[in-house]
Amino acid sequence: MKEILIFSSKGGVGKTTLVEAIRQCLSPAEVVDLDPQGSLSIALQMASIPLAPSNSKYRLYDSAPYNDGALDQIMLKVDHIFVPERLGYPDLLAFRTVYERLLAAKATRKALIVFNEVRKPLPIEAREVLRLFRKNYPNVKIASSFISRLEAFRKLFRFPIDGKAAAQITSLLAEIGINIVR
Length: 182
Prior knowledge:
Blueprint: E1 2-6, H1 15-26, E2 30-33, H2 39-46, E3 58-62, H3 71-77, E4 80-86, H4 89-104, E5 111-116, H5 124-136, E6 141-142, H6 163-174
Parallel strand pairs: 1-3, 1-4, 2-3, 4-5, 5-6
Helix pairs in contact: 1-6
């Protein structure tokens, strides 16, 4: 079973929404909701979607924006770590905490920064922040698949993923060798 951790030290960057979008593309996929708010677990239960389908090939971890102690062990065992961030100075600064955690866990090679809320063409500030991410965190790969409106994908909890959202998530998954035929 392939395992993917979605982790960021910031709240509101789209961790849960990214997990749900990936779950829909990889369905059936097991979801482990580590966030005490339990938003994903509650939404799936309300929709009568099992958290652990018996025929899952993938396990997705939705993390809390802080360290609950179990995160380091999960970082060690997963195949991939997606770190959703925005192309802004606050995210650049907050990523330092994530970077230090990845270094301590020797997990930088598993990590992939996934930028969301990206507008194209990139504004000058976003290009500068992207340059600074690359300069300051050279050991962490940046996904070439930018997500344009991950926060807008919140409708995923009511409707299946489709269109641009599905294409962006499919492209992101292809970057880690998971190819989906839609």
